[in-house]
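Bumping my old thread because nobody answered last time. Still need a sequence for this structure:
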């Protein structure tokens, strides 16, 4: 149990913050729904419940993924976070379905909600809280991408670097982006229904929110399915290939794999070197390449071996060197 709590300290902090705040928001929206019967508020309550459950799962999964390898699991537990996220998005999918069904029922049988001021107040508070979480998640996205941020950068620049973020951070950012948008849509629907009498607006927004939740489900599911199977990081593969080929004693690359496992990268390299070098020289080259590759962002472990150069070029997969290479890890 002590080891478990020690691991929790390594969990994804934005997901824990988001989970706690969404729990509070879900409680507020749930209370408002039971007092007013507002269908847009029901959609937002379901959304917040799904987000909170997801983010608790994500926090625990991200922590467990950092567990050290064991004799029984020598490759470590990096993919645990992908498996947890696959389970988590199923919850959001179920809640998204219920949200759409409730919105459709409201379209068929629109009813006037009560407690206008309660609804407006809760949605306004929820929007501000979700915006705060989105800002924090955006800041983490930029941090994981080694990009300095200031002012409103986390809300503006994060979208461009979302691909470089860790799976857990990416999920939190996308969920809270949809949650913030959903709150604003629900607020708009309530205002339209109250001041124009177009009660169907709440049902329409409920369906839109459900569809937005399904979008997050689809995108996160596909990304983490690839991660659970083991996906090549093409950008880092190209980067490491250039680093290896720049070494004066490396003639060619026979094999290079850079596989994503959760938040980490595992590298396997077979380099071709001059067959006339001594064992000691080969050992020095290996030590240098291991140190160089481990210094790259996200690389967890490296396996380097050698084969003698036969004069035949094997490695033909390196694209042009990118203008901006991924930064070194801290």
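Sorry it took so long. Here it is:
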């Amino acid at each position: 149990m002590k080891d478990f709590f020690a691991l929790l300290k390594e969990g994804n902090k934005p997901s824990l913050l988001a989970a706690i705040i969404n729990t509070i928001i879900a409680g507020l929206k749930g209370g408002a729904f039971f007092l007013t019967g507002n269908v847009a508020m029901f959609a937002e309550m379901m959304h917040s419940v799904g987000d909170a459950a997801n983010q608790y799962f994500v926090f625990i999964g991200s922590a467990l993924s950092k567990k050290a390898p064991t004799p029984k699991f020598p490759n470590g537990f990096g993919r645990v976070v992908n498996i947890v996220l696959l389970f988590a998005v199923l919850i959001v999918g179920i809640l998204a379905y219920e949200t759409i069904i409730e919105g459709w029922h409201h379209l068929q049988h629109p009813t006037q909600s009560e407690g206008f001021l309660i609804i407006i107040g809760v949605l306004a508070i929820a929007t501000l809280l979700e915006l705060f979480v989105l800002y924090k998640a955006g800041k983490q996205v930029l941090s994981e991408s080694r990009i300095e941020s200031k002012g409103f950068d986390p809300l503006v620049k994060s979208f461009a670097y979302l691909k470089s973020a860790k799976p857990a951070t990416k999920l939190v950012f996308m969920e809270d982006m949809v949650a913030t948008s959903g709150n604003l849509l629900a607020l708009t629907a309530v205002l339209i229904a109250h001041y124009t009498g177009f009660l169907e607006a709440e049902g329409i927004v409920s369906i839109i929110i459900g569809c937005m939740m399904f979008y997050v489900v689809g995108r996160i599911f596909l990304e983490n399915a690839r991660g659970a199977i083991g996906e090549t990081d093409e950008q880092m593969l190209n980067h490491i290939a250039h680093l290896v080929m720049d070494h004066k004693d490396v003639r060619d690359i026979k094999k290079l794999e850079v596989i994503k496992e959760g938040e980490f990268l595992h590298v396997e390299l077979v380099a071709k070197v001059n067959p006339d070098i001594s064992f000691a020289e080969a050992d020095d080259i290996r030590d240098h390449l291991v140190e160089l590759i481990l210094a790259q962002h996200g690389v967890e472990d490296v396996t380097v071996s050698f084969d003698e150069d036969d004069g035949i070029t094997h490695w033909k997969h390196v694209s042009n060197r990118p203008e901006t290479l991924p930064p070194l890890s801290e």
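The longest helix spans residues 167-196. Let me know if any region looks off to you.
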